[in-house]
Amino acid sequence: MSVDTGTPAVAVIAGTSYDSGLGADLLRAKGLAAVPYAMAGSPDEQDSLQYQDPDGLAAAFHGCLAELRAGGTELAMLFCNSLSAVVDHDDAALPVVSPVTVYSELLPSLRSSLVVTGNAQAVLGVERTAWRTAPGHRMLGVSDPALVRGIEAGDPEAAFAASHLPTTLRLAERLGIEAVVLACTHFTAVLPYVVATCDLPVIDVGTRLVERTTRAVTNGLSGDVAA
């Protein structure tokens, strides 16, 4: 599919070059121009920033948005669940399509969910949104940083098979959980293996972000962007 060059490129901001590049590739497959921007060089560096220097990370994030706006960018997609839990992007320099908006829409429609994330910051972000938008929602949150690192190593299928996720999915089925939420954009890479392993509905936040961003561009940035 050819890329639409009639609109400014979407800035894809994420934790590492892997997920920023994945998000940009997914948007390009939808015909949109996209440019990736990574906030760290590795998952370890991103985790360190989130846990040890969240203020510095937030300042770098907002500085990036300000530079992008000055350069003519009109829309950003925040393609990182844990980063969305750490940085406040309600009053950002650019409109931001965020995982937080996806959670706010999704969780009230479910009675319960297994939420699988790349680190505990992302678990906190989803749980905070559930508390605010769906207080009766039963959430089982699991983080798997090792799966993130395995995916970045270049073999998502092997990383999935070696992870605890297949066992966790079977546990969710036994517990009667209503749906599985993949709340790490890295996990978009293992979505086919999760679907093949699990009989529960699987909701991939990365896919939802791409869908929302595509609609936002098509609708002139209205209706699908977090305030």
- How many helical stretches? 11
The whole-angstrom Rg is: 17 Å
Q: Spatial order of the strands in the main sheet?
A: 2-1-3-4
Overall, the morphology is globular
Percentage beta strand = 15-25%
- Catalogue the unreliable spans: none
CATH topology grouping of the largest domain: Rossmann fold
Largest sheet: 4 strands, parallel
The rounded distance between the terminal residues' Cα atoms is 31 Å
- Class by alpha and beta content: alpha/beta
- Tally of distinct domains: 2
Structure in words:
This protein has 227 residues and is an alpha/beta fold. The chain folds into 2 domains: 10-98 and 207-218, Rossmann fold, CATH 3.40.50.1860; 101-205, 3-Layer(aba) Sandwich (Rossmann fold). The protein has 11 helices and 8 strands. The strands form 2 sheets. A 4-stranded parallel sheet has the order 2-1-3-4, with helices on both faces. Strands 6-5-7-8 form a 4-stranded parallel sheet, with helices on both faces. The mean pLDDT is 92.
List the helices and strands and how they pair.
Layout: E1 10-14, H1 17-29, E2 34-38, H2 43-52, H3 54-70, E3 76-78, H4 81-86, E4 96-97, H5 99-106, E5 112-117, H6 120-133, E6 138-143, H7 145-152, H8 156-162, H9 165-175, E7 179-183, H10 191-197, E8 202-204, H11 205-218
Parallel strand pairs: 1-2, 1-3, 3-4, 5-6, 5-7, 7-8
Helix pairs in contact: 5-6, 7-8
Attribute tags:
4-stranded parallel β-sheet; alpha/beta; Rossmann fold; single chain; 227 residues
